[in-house]
Every structure is written in structure tokens, then in C-alpha cells.
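Lab meeting prep.
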Amino acid sequence: MELFEHIRLQLRSQVTVLTPNRRLSATLLRHYNQYQQSLGQLSWPSPSIVPLTRWLEQLWQEASFAQLGPIRRKLTATQEQLLWDEILKASPATERLLQIEAAAETAKSAWGILKQWRVPLDHPALATTEDSHVFLQWATRFQALCDENQWLDANQFIEQLTQCIQERFIQLPERILVCGFTELTPLQEHLFTVCQKAGTDIVFYDQLYPHEKNDTPVQIGLTDTETEIISMARWALKKNHASSPSIGCIVPNLETIREQVLRIFTEVFSENQCYTVDPTTLPFNISAGKNLATYPIIYAALQWLQLPLQTLSYETMSRLLRSPFLGEAEKEQAQRALFDIHLCNTQRTPLSLLQILQSALPVNLKNKCPYLYKRCAAFLEQYHTLSTATSNTWANHFLELLTVLGWPGERSLNSPEYQIVQRWLELLEELASINHFVPAQNYESALHYLIRITNTTLYQPKTPEAPIQILGLLEAAGSPFDYLWVMGTDDANWPPPLKPNPFLPQRLQKTLKMPHASAERELTYSKRLLEQLIQNTSHIIFSYPKQNAECQLRPSPLISTLPEITLEELDLPPFIHPAETIYQTQALETITDEFGPAILPTEQIRGGMQIFKHQAACPFKAFAEIRLQAKQHEPPTLGLRYQDRGTVVHKALEFIWQEIKTSTRLVDYPDAELNAFITTCVTQALEKVAHQQTAQKRYLQLEIERVTTLLRNWLDIEKNRPPFSIVSQEQECSVTLGSIPLTLRIDRIDKLDDGAQLIIDYKTGKNNPIQSWFSDRPDEPQLPLYCTVNQPNTIGIAFAEIHQENLGLKGIAKQDISIKTIKPIHDTPYAENRTWAEQIHAWQQTLEKISHDFSQGHAKVDPKNNSETCRYCHLHAFCRVYAV
């Protein structure tokens, strides 16, 4: 090959090969070694093939040794960004900005563009707009700070290098080969021009791998982006044969859909439907890094460091409790999982570390997870000893605090985790290096800087070389491939949409053809990139999605003239989605087993009315939830749960009737006093039910107002009833039905004028049909059961619906009791029995049969009404009702 032959012949003299990125440098070096082997060589001098940035660093080190006087200090990327942050924070122009740090990143980018395009700060265009005028003030301050402290940013560093070359402080190679650059910025062009004037021969190579026979590039339109990724993965699987060709898969927006691409490629390349293999054994590498803070081992460290400063949601706290990256995580795994369930059941959210440590509840961290309690207590104790310090001191403090917690855990780290931890330790060193840019600070401020540095760091653990490379568009430019698939080349995204820098005048950006400034510039750049991809690849496919979530798409004008192919022509290997594979390979073994073990005399059964309700709805549900304790844990909510809101209404009515007692007194109660009394009762009820959410004062005040209005309207309905008095509220009675002992709690029993009793059950939902009391499998067996227990005195049963949209009593009675919504039994269409005694007898028989079935272990998967019974049930995977 021409390039490699050129390098081989020039090695006796000084020659350096420069590339735009490390990937291309490594590829060229590997291919050069293969070229030497093809010539029969057993040994050869190693050429200097390096990325441009690394070469410039080498020149800077040489210049630093050559100069006798003091040299300027080169800023790291972190230091440079923090300097911009501090400049914007101190500027009056940013007082109304909501995201100063994001603006600082944009300002830093604008500064870099000006330097790369060699635009001086005194350029008249920079003062033509309000935004650019403000930016000019920031840029002038940045320049002044750099000059005052002898600092250099990444762009000034190249300018300084150019000056050193001109002053002959640096010895350049005789020849420089510039390979694989899609474009050069004016600053880079100036650098190479200065090198030429200093006597170095500069040679540019655009086509690195001229292929003798290139296939004609083709295009293919696919349904959507996911279909594109699946098709590309299947194509790569087909091309990955024994001859080990180089295969490239280019995803323009790889950084945003990285996880989707990784998942699909892993599924396509899985063998024997095994999806848990070590990713380093797969024949593909994905180049895009992830935000370092998103890796679980770093996420856990940052969240624990934030615990003394804030409260966390239950979900976050649960994730930390179950984290394997804490001390004794393996030894105490079961206890921590149980404590996690306990936190869920207590409905505490948000949570603080101090609350968890100081909990006086019977189930607490100290007695359930003693190892974790000891570490957390030591962590808080050490935290309270910290005060204002410099950044390098804080870097040590953070590491010490994590060590107290046992981070990164007791198990051995795998290779990716080890690399991630090492990269984060480097970030702690970067935090220590910002002393000159930020003053001494407190814990919160120092942690903020650490989180910011971590969030802006992309990282990808090193993996073995693989024949298939999944790359971003710019990263692939200049890289040679035998086979290449470029996806996402639709008319909406290629050329990419404009994105000029908001701090620079658009006219200036368009005139100087700065990145993303004009359609003309993006078109020219995309054409050049397209040519480069085609030149360096033997076989290339361009694909585009025909639609996205919003609209129909067409191929980019850059590929619209290429021949179009179909998936059938590619003859790709078959692919079945894992879920479909699992479904197709189902082999159900049918065993008729509808009974569990009968209840033993020594077995304690808890569940109360839920036993009858579940057994009537579906016998398996009762067996699973009551006997096997297969219950779903409801995650905490920020406000009150639905059942808690219902409890507040129940408790407030209990307080109200404890005082009022009769309907006569209710009617005589003055309205103003009644309103105040209702509010007092609701407040007392909330204090008992919501004692753990007292910090949510505004929310609780709104809840008091809502319930007070609701109960005021309900009591207006109670006033219009025939006279009654309250016999009991929340009365408990113990009974045994069949072999099941029960403790019943009756919401309320009213005594009517004739001495008969009406049993009332409060319902805060709006749909409570009385037909749910009837049939051999009643949906709501509670009131019928109460009625059978209190047979002689009970004249009727009723739901008291207390809901904004439904307010009123509905029920049935032995006879007419002068309440329109409570019908006599003989006028009730749902009742098969026409007399009260017959109905009570029928209920008793029904409930005894349900009790008997449950006692004997009857556990058939038999939902009463599939669409309704199974809709909100969480046992589908257990009972497999839909697999039968």
C-alpha cells in the first residue's frame, strides 16, 4: 500500500504520522505491522504513528525543557471548565440565568471556536449582538486570568507551540504524514504551515486504503431505527466469518442510543439464546463511553456521599441498601433485603440517613443490619468532624468516608469495574488540582464540584480487540474497513441540523464556515465525510429509517442517487427476539393440582375478611396471599396512599360521632361551630394517620381542606335521615366461621327509632354496587358476614359512599326504613330470597362453604371474572392464568 510503503521508506529519516484519534493510530500501526510481515520481514523499526493531540503534548514537553525561563502551565479540561464557571458566577450578566454551569460550557465552546478559527477578541463582529457582547466580557476576563497566572488552555497551548516552533525551541521531524482528517481548522492549518516554513515536509493522505475493487455503495430504507439496528447487527453477524474482515457499524447518534444498540447486538450475537455471557467475549466493541456517574459502582459512591446533605426517595434508598458496593454486602444481603421491605411498608419517603439511624421502631437498622448500622454511624460521626478545607483535602476526605462505608464492597471487582474505579480515583486527583481556581469550601460545595466533574466525564472500559467496531460518525472518519454499514442517513439528520453557538454572531459563524453554522457548511462537510467513508471501504451500505415517532422520512439527498436494495437481497441470518424465543419454546407440563394442604389445628391463619374476599374472587389468590404470603409491597408515595386517605375519613367520622352521638344533636349543631369541629376532627385524624409525613405541611393542609368539605357535605345528607343514634363505632368482635377464627371490626352501627340496628360500612370509593353481596361468590362479603353475626337486632346493611362524586347510603333492609336508597329485601332485584331470614340463611351457607374450601386448601386458579378479577392482581406470573 502507498501509505505504508511511504512510511517504510522514510523510516531511516525522521517521519511522524499524525491521525485525528487514537483508534486510527492503533489501526494504522497494526496494519503497518501486517504489511511488513507480508513482505517477509522478521523485524523492523516501529514508526511514530500518533494522534495529533498526543504529538502536540510531546512537542510541549520538548519546548518546556528547551526554554530557560519560566513556562506557562497548561490547564486540564476540568480546570478550564471550572475557571469558566467561576467567571460566569461572578458576572452580573448571569443573575437571571437558571443554569449557569450549562452557560459556562457553551461559553467555553465559543472560546474554543474563536481560537480554532483564529478570531481575535477585538474583532468588530463580536460586539454586534447583546449575547456576543456579554461573552466578550467573559472571554476578556478569561484571557486576563490566564495571562496573570501564566496559564494556557487547550487552544492557547497550540498557539504557544506554534510560537516555539517559529523560535526554533522544538526540533521537528523531517516529514509529517497527515492521515484521515476530514477537515482542518484554521489553527491546525497554521500550525502545519509554520512546520513547513521550519523545513518539515508535510504530506496529506486522504485515501488511506485504496481498494483495487470497490463495490458500488448502496442504500436501503427500513421501517424504523430499531429495525435498522437489528438489520445492521444481523449483517455484521453474517460478515463475521473465519477470514476476520474488518467490519464497521456507524451510528451517528451513538451516544444517545448506546444502550439500545448494545442490547440488540448482544441479543443478535448470543449463542443458544444465552444472554448473560461476558460482553468481552463477544466479537464486537462499542466505542461510545457512558457518563461515569451512571455506572452503578460510581452512582452508589456519589449517592452515599450526598446522604448527609439531603433526603432521598424510597427508590434511591432501596437501591443503595441493596448495593453490592458496601461493606458486608454479601454477608448481610438477606437482612438488608428484609429491611428494604420494612422501609417500603412504613411508607416513609423521602428518607434521610439520620432518620434511619435514629428510628425507635421495633424494626430498625441497628437490630436488623448491625454491620451496615455500624458503618453508617461511623460515616456520620466522621462527617460531623469535617469543616471548611481546600479541594485537595476534600479529595482525601471523600475517599476516607467511602472507605468507612466499605466501598467498593467485599467481593472482588471484575475488570470493567476495576477500570471504572481507577478512572474515578483519577477524577479525585483532578478535584485536588483545582485549588487555584476555587477558594476553601465546605462539604456541600466540594461535593458539588466532584459530582460535576464526574457527570461531565465519559468513560468506556477497555476491551479486547474485536473484528466488529460500532462507532460514531466522526470517530469512523478515515478508518479503513472491509465492510461498512452507516445507519441514520435520512433527510432530517444527514446533513445534521444546524446548531450555531448562541454566544457568537451567526453572521460571523457563517462567514468563517464554523461548525454547524450554516446549511452550506454542513452540506460541504457531509459530502467530504461521505467521500472519505467510500474511499476507505470496499463494501458500504447506507440505511435510513422510513419513519420516526413523528413523521415520514426520506433518504438523505447525499445518498438518494445510490442504488437501492432490500433486506431480501442481503440474505441476512434469521433473528428472533428473546421474548419471542422464550414464548415459542414453551413446554408446559400440565398437572391437575387444585388443592394445597388443609389447615392444621396448630396453624395460625391471619387475614380476616380478606380470606373470604380472596377465596370468592379466586381460590388460588387466597391460598397464595394468605397461606404463602405472596403479597405485593406498595412503594411509598410522596403524599398519602389511597388507603391512608380512606383511613383519615374513617377516623375523622369516628371522632365526630363520639361527640355528636345522635342525629338530633347533629341537626341542632350551629353551622359555624360544626365546620370548625369537623376541621378539628380531620386534623386529629391526619395526625394519627400521617404522623410520618408531617414535613409536607402544604400538602397536609390541602388534604384537611378537602376532607373537611367532603365530610361537611356528607353530614348534610345524614341530617336528612330519619332519627337515629350511634350504638357503636369501630366495634370489634371475635367469631369463628367454619374453622377460621375472625376478628371483625364494624365501622358503625346505628340504632333507629324502633330499636332495630342498621350496620354501615364506610366506602371512600365511588363504585360500590350492592349486587356485590350476592351470588355464591360475593365480591364484598364483609357486610353479609356482619349481618349473620348480629342476626336478632340487625334490620339492614348499607354502604356509606363518601366520595366527591357519590355521596349517600345504599343498601338493603328487612323492611322499609324510610330511606329511599335502602331497599326492602323483597324489592331488591339482586336477591334470590324474598325474606330477610332466608337471605341471612343463604349468606351463612355461602360464607361457611367459602370457609370450608379455604380450610381444606382449595386453591384452584379459578377467577370469578377474568377481565375484572385478574386486572389488578399481581400473581399472573405465579398462577400462569394466561398460559393455560
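Slide two material, second protein:
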Amino acid sequence: MGDVSVGHTDLKGGEISGAAVAHLIDELPMLAALGPYTEQGIEIRDARELRVKESDRIAALAENLRRMGASVEELPDGLRVAGRAGGKLHGAEIDPHGDHRIAMAFAVAALAPRVLRRFATRNALRFRFPASFDTLEKILER
């Protein structure tokens, strides 16, 4: 169990691999979705388990990040997401493939540029957090 907190500073990025993966397995989708907003990008390795969760989370992350215009290299056991130098992001329709963690990851990523406002399905996120989109809308209004 742990907390991830982000202040009002630039995100540096880096690599997550080895033993750290097991401790962050549920947070990896969100960290990957934030990769394009980091200085160095995010590389996730040793996370083959993400391929056999509710969906193939590695493939879903890569697909949706590419839809946004991010530069992504899908790996057998993870992915590499380029940081700010990897291209300019744009709005996209996100398909979470019925996976609430993918939906949550991109909902949070949407707060950064305020460009991702449409999801192919909202049911994946509403399953875990019924007021999720109402809460995000309130945050975006601020």
C-alpha cells in the first residue's frame, strides 16, 4: 500500500522495473498515461502481468496514447512512452477496453492538457467509482 502524490512541479519521468513493478502494478497504467507530460518519459519493464489483467493493459495504453499523438513503443513486458519531446498531444476518443484502470488512467491524464473529454465507454470507470465523471467535471471547471 502506498500513496503517489504530485506537486506543482515538472514531472521528471524515469524507468519502473524489477521489484518495484509488483508494488506499483495497479498504478502503472496511470503512470504510463502521464508519461507524455514528463521531461524524460516513462519506461515500464518486467510488467508482463499487465497483459493478462481485465484487458491487455499494455496494448490498451499504447493504443490510446497513440490516439492522443504520443510516441509509444510497445514492449513484450511493458512500454516506453516518450516525454515532452515525443510530440504534441491532441484530443482523442479513448477506448478503455472495459478496463476500469485504463479508464481511470486516461481520466486523470485528461486533467493535464484538458483535451481528453470523450470516452468510448464510461461504464468501466463508473463500476469502481460511480461519481467519477461528475467529480472530474467539477475539477475541470476550476
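Talking points for slide two:
The longest strand covers residues 72-75.
DSSP finds six helices and six strands in the chain.
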